[in-house]
Amino acid sequence: MLVRLPTVLTILFPGAPPRVELRAGTVAEAIDGLNERWPGMGDRIRDSSPAIRRHINIFVDGRRARLETPLAPGAEVFVLTAISGG
Prior knowledge:
The chain is an alpha+beta fold and about 90 residues long.
């Protein structure tokens, strides 16, 4: 499975590439995998409730996902930061 990370996360975690290959069965497991490689990244994506943070959106194969969303082999996961303004 391929995870695409936003630039804001790759800047905060030196050495984190914009695309990461992982093995995971759910979005939550993918976040755990990212956190294992770059400690603290999981806290930037998920809050303590646990839920995906309000300013983060995760899409799996083009569909909005939740922590429990299953990941098929070869899935493409996008972690996006929300954009707002006025």
